[in-house]
Every structure is written in C-alpha cells, then in structure tokens.
TrEMBL record:
InterPro entries: ITPase, ITPase-like_fam, RdgB/HAM1. It is found in: Cytoplasm; Nucleus. It comes from Xylona heveae (strain CBS 132557 / TC161). This is Inosine triphosphate pyrophosphatase. GO terms for molecular function: dITP diphosphatase activity; ITP diphosphatase activity; metal ion binding; nucleotide binding; XTP diphosphatase activity. NCBIfam families: RdgB/HAM1 family non-canonical purine NTP pyrophosphatase (TIGR00042). Binds 1 divalent metal cation per subunit; can use either Mg(2+) or Mn(2+). ITP binds at residues 8-13, 48, 64-65, 140-143, 161, 166-167. GO terms for cellular component: cytoplasm; nucleus.
Amino acid sequence: MLNLVFVTGNRHKVSEVKAILGDTVDLQAVALDLPEIQGTLEEITLEKCRRAAEMTGGPVLVEDSALEMHALNGLPGPYVKAFVDTVGNKGLINLLVPHENKTAEAVCTLGYSSGPGAEPIIFQGKLVGQIVPARGVSSFGWEPIFEFDGETLAEMSREKKFGLSHRYKAVVKFRKWLEFQ
Ligand SMILES: O=c1[nH]c(=O)c2ncn([C@@H]3O[C@H](COP(=O)(O)OP(=O)(O)OP(=O)(O)O)[C@@H](O)[C@H]3O)c2[nH]1
Ligand SMILES: [Mg+2]
C-alpha cells in the first residue's frame, strides 16, 4: 500500500480526503499551512506540492481549493480563504448582490509528488452550484452558502458531500491514476 503524507492546515480536508481514498492509501496528515503564491490554480498547487515534497522528503499530496463566481469572472478564486477570514460568508454573498447570476464553481486542485525533485502531477475536480443565503451549520469555509441540487453543502450528510464534491472528483481521478502505477 502507498504511504502518503497529506500536507494541509485544514482538518476538514483531511477527513474528506481520507473518506474518499478509503483504505487504498495509507494517508498521514501533516498539519502545516504551506505558503501560497499568486498565480493560476495549477501554479499555486504545483508550488505547494514542490515545497511539501522538500519538507517531508517523501510522497506527498497537497490541494488548493478555489471558489469561482461566474458573475465575477472567477473571483475570488484561490483567494477565497482571505474573504472567508475577513468578511465571512456574508461578505461573499454581498459580492453578488449587484448580479443576477449567482452561479459559482468550487474547484479542487490536487497535487501529488513522489518526492523532492519529482515534478508534481495535478488532478482537478469541479462542482457547479449557486451562492445562496446561509443554511445549515458547518465550520468548513463556505459550506452554508454553496447550494448544489437544492441543498447547501452544510445541509448535506457528510457521506453525500464526500460522494459529489469538487474534492471527490479530484481524488477519484488521483485514485484511478494510482491504479495504473
Ligand atoms: O465550504 C467549503 N467546502 C469545501 O469543500 C472547502 N474546501 C476548501 N474550503 C475553504 O476554501 C478556502 C480554500 O483555501 P485553501 O485551499 O488554501 O485551504 P486551507 O488554507 O484551509 O488549507 P491548506 O491550504 O493548508 O490545504 C479555505 O477557506 C477553506 O476553508 C472549503 N469550504
Ligand atoms: Mg491554504
């Protein structure tokens, strides 16, 4: 079984990735907030992954999550964490007040590297939904304001979210790729 270190400062990501990977991988989490450059989703994840491989010396997984509002041409994108931490979900909703189009996509960009010096490989998953007034209780980012198929991510059972999320779609691509290694 592959031993893999998941470097992330976010415990919610760890539970979700562990649930999706199941026992196909021995996943150990290292709680570190890696520096994040400005750039495309791929560039940010590649750099996080290179850094994580150098720090741990072995096979690593990292991810970066973005929230792209269609009416804002993709903003706040990878900078969504700064919005959650400063103006909160209410502030995110307010960005869309002047716009009729409330659609947004959650994007998970996952990076895997077999070790220091090995160029990371990227796997991406997307979930298109609507930004709505908060419903449901969750301490994970923007879950209460992201609605998919009539439910916000905060209202959904964990099993349901873990089976349809942007992260699920990225991790499944990674799991399939692993099968052929
Ligand atoms: O409602 C949510 N459902 C999700 O599925 C989800 N995934 C990420 N996020 C939030 O979006 C920002 C991403 O920033 P981010 O990718 O840099 O994450 P992070 O800094 O927390 O961890 P990491 O970078 O150490 O891995 C952070 O505010 C996360 O809390 C989510 N919110
Ligand atoms: Mg981060």
